Amino acid sequence: MTKQGKRVRISGKGQPDQRIVGRSSARGYSGVGFGFPRFRAGSSAFRSGVVIERFSEKSQESTAPAQRPAFALWIATAGGVGYAPLAPGTAGAAVGVAVFLALRPLSPALLGLTLLALFALGVWAADAAGAYFGEEDDGRIVVDEVAGQFLSLTPLCWVSSAFSSFGSGLLWVVTGFVLFRVLDIRKPGPVRWAERRGRGGFGVMLDDMVAGALAAAGLWLLLRLFSAGIAAEFVG
């Protein structure tokens, strides 16, 4: 003998959902829905023909597949470089070197505006990518290394002798690259402070920008020393 009954679905806010209907019988019951409790034959809920299903809207939302933010991921991973199996941060910094060399002929004002735009775009992309990956500062996010490395090399635009020859320019670029990577990995005082203070995409970008600023200051100091001949005299 089958007894028709109704199933009431109660959300976290206590509102019934009229769309769910089920049935109970002497051997059990069947129905559709998500995570409803199993009642044994003879229970009060079973005998009454009413099955109460507690439903969490939040849990349903968390299990829904996230939409892939394709453009944000492309920016955050520096065109896919962040997926490199080894040293993605170093690979991202190398992209920063390439971006700087491509834009070096621009005026200092345009370089500054480009850097600000890259920072703002990086904050947005890192925030979206972190939400998609499920980790705020996921290793695949390398746009912060791109921007930080770009910033660290900007003093090379201020000293004309930096690119007096191919060998000289290569030496200074490598010096700026190494300075930034050491500061980004070791994270001395100000860099560590920035890493702990920032949140979301802004936090992801902030510590690398601080590392880039410190590397830029160190590179500028070395450039001034060598251009004045002080460092060469001190070493000799």
Which short descriptors sum up this protein?
236 residues; mainly alpha; 2 domains; 3-stranded antiparallel beta sheet; 3-stranded mixed beta sheet; 58% helix; disordered N terminus
What count of helical segments does DSSP give? 10
Structural class of the helix and strand makeup?
Answer: mainly alpha
Beta-strand content estimate: 5-15%
Mean pLDDT: 78
Largest β sheet strand count, sense and barrel closure: 3 strands, antiparallel
Low-confidence segments: 1-64
Radius of gyration: 29 Å
SSE series? EEEEEHEHHHHHHHHH
Strand order of the largest sheet: 1-4-5
Question: What sort of overall outline do the alpha carbons produce when their principal axes are compared?
Answer: globular
The number of distinct structural domains comes to 2
- Distance linking N and C termini: 103 Å
Structure summary, number of beta strands: 6
Determine the fraction of residues in helical runs and give it as a percent range: 55-70%
